Amino acid sequence: MKIVINREVGAFNLSDEAARRYLRMSGRSGTHSESGVTLSRQFAHQYARRSDPVLVEVVEKMGPSASGDDACLEVVEVPATGWRLLDVCGIECVVPDADAQSASTSQVR
């Protein structure tokens, strides 16, 4: 399974063009209430959405230009289960979930 993570100090943040492309490809281009900032916040706080196939495709196709300010988005391959996303100052990494109960800044998958 592929997910999108942030590899830079800061926060998960899509560029404006990546957000527009995501909305267009997901059939939501007419939704004016969803800005790039709103969309980025949704992905930043809802780790389960990081495997969204449209999001993965946008980041893979756009490469570095998919990343917004203070972000470096990257697509990584993870197993279907048995991992968690660890966030330290915005830098995210995938780790085994053996210690999932003790980590307050992570989400278990």
In terms of DSSP E residues, the strand content is 15-25%
How do the strands line up in the largest sheet?
A: 4-3-5
| SSE topology string | EHHHEEEE
Give the overall shape. globular
Number of helices: 3
> How would you sum up the major sheet?
3 strands, antiparallel
Tell me the number of structural domains: 1
Task: Please describe what this structure looks like.
The structure is a single chain. The chain is an alpha+beta fold and 109 residues long. The chain has one domain. The protein contains 3 helices and 5 strands, in the order E-H-H-H-E-E-E-E. It has helices spanning 16-25, 36-45, 53-62, and strands at residues 2-6, 73-77, 83-88, 91-96, 106-108. The strands form 2 sheets. The protein has a 3-stranded antiparallel β-sheet with strand order 4-3-5, with no helix packed on it. The chain has a two-stranded antiparallel sheet with strand order 1-2. A hairpin with a 2-residue loop joins strand 3 and strand 4. Helix 1 (16-25) crosses helix 3. Residues 100-105 have low confidence and may be disordered.
Write the SSE topology:
Elements: E1 2-6, H1 16-25, H2 36-45, H3 53-62, E2 73-77, E3 83-88, E4 91-96, E5 106-108
Antiparallel strand pairs: 1-2, 3-4, 3-5
Helix pairs in contact: 1-2, 1-3
